[in-house]
């Protein structure tokens, strides 16, 4: 993989650079990353899934970005559509995480207003299996963050730790408060676009990592950020640009 900016480097390993990027936590909350992939025409999915937009290079950057956080946050719709599982770590990723003072494995948090999360996705199914990835029970078991309207029966069907926030729908600031209370310094949001829109609307995005796929997808897929009630321009600065197999990997930080 080549680094184009800020300086040209012929061969770089994303795992050698992303985890070492400075991410100073703002006062009272964690640093917030967003990681998404999009086609040249802005689609975030093909036939409802993001996998067809990427490839080996995108997966390498994906692993490096995940190696840089304490918690991964995803909305319930994306967790179900993408069949989320517990975060998997290679030996190299674990070494990188430990070297930079993080736990061996990030925790997964799923945000839902209704509690309508598929209880059969691997994130829950594998939480009951102590042989999967040799993870401890606290690392396998996802955290489900919801509000007062969530269906109790649906929540009871999930093999997860449940947090009910004292509000109708879980709001971005309250979700970050809960993770900050649990010691999070860096939180990675992986969508979907509507949850990203809520994070942007609340002014809580400090960094965005965008993988740009050399595909014209067409269709009606959402943008990286969707559903914000009003335009909230946030100026970002390009801090790094990588390239491999026709994909571009841009890291932007808030000005």
The strand count comes to: 10
Compressed to H and E, one letter per element, the order equals EEHEHHEHHEHEHEHEEE
Strand order in the largest sheet: 1-9-10-8-2-7-3-4-5-6
Low-confidence stretches: 128-135
Count of alpha and pi helical runs: 8
Keywords:
255 residues, ten-stranded mixed β-sheet, 10 strands, 23% strand
Detailed description of the structure:
The protein contains eight helices and ten strands. The chain has helices spanning 56-66, 76-81, 91-99, 122-125, 137-140, 152-156, 172-181, 193-201; strands at 2-5, 31-39, 71-75, 107-111, 143-146, 161-164, 186-189, 207-213, 236-244, 247-254. A hairpin with a 2-residue loop joins strand 9 and strand 10. The model is unreliable at 128-135 (pLDDT under 50).
What is this structure's SSE topology?
Elements: E1 2-5, E2 31-39, H1 56-66, E3 71-75, H2 76-81, H3 91-99, E4 107-111, H4 122-125, H5 137-140, E5 143-146, H6 152-156, E6 161-164, H7 172-181, E7 186-189, H8 193-201, E8 207-213, E9 236-244, E10 247-254
Parallel strand pairs: 2-7, 2-8, 3-4, 3-7, 4-5, 5-6
Antiparallel strand pairs: 1-9, 8-10, 9-10
Care to give the gist of this entry?
This protein has 255 residues and is an alpha/beta fold. It is 23% helix and 23% strand. β5, α6 and β6 form a beta-alpha-beta unit.
């Amino acid at each position: 993989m080549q680094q184009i900016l800020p300086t040209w480097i012929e061969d770089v390993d994303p795992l050698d650079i992303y985890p070492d990027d400075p991410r100073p936590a703002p006062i009272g909350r964690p640093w917030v990353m967003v990681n998404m992939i999009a086609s040249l025409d802005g689609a975030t999915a093909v036939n409802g899934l993001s996998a067809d937009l990427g490839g080996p290079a995108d997966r390498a950057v994906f692993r490096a970005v995940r190696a840089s956080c304490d918690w991964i946050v995803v909305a319930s719709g994306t967790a179900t559509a993408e069949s989320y599982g517990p975060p998997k770590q290679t030996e190299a990723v674990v070494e990188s995480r430990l070297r930079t003072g993080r736990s061996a494995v990030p925790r997964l948090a799923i945000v839902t207003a209704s509690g309508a999360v598929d209880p059969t996705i691997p994130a829950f199914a594998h939480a009951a299996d102590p042989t999967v990835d040799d993870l401890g029970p606290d690392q396998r078991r996802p955290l489900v963050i919801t509000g007062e309207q969530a269906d109790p029966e649906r929540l009871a069907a999930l093999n997860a730790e449940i947090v009910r926030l004292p509000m109708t729908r879980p709001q971005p600031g309250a979700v970050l408060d809960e993770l900050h209370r649990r010691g999070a310094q860096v939180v990675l949001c992986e969508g979907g676009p509507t949850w990203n829109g809520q994070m942007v609307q609340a002014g809580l995005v400090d960094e965005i990592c965008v993988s740009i796929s050399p595909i014209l997808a067409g269709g009606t897929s959402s943008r990286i950020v969707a559903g914000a009630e009003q335009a909230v321009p946030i100026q970002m600065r390009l801090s790094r640009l990588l390239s491999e197999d026709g994909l571009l990997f841009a890291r932007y930080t808030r000005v």
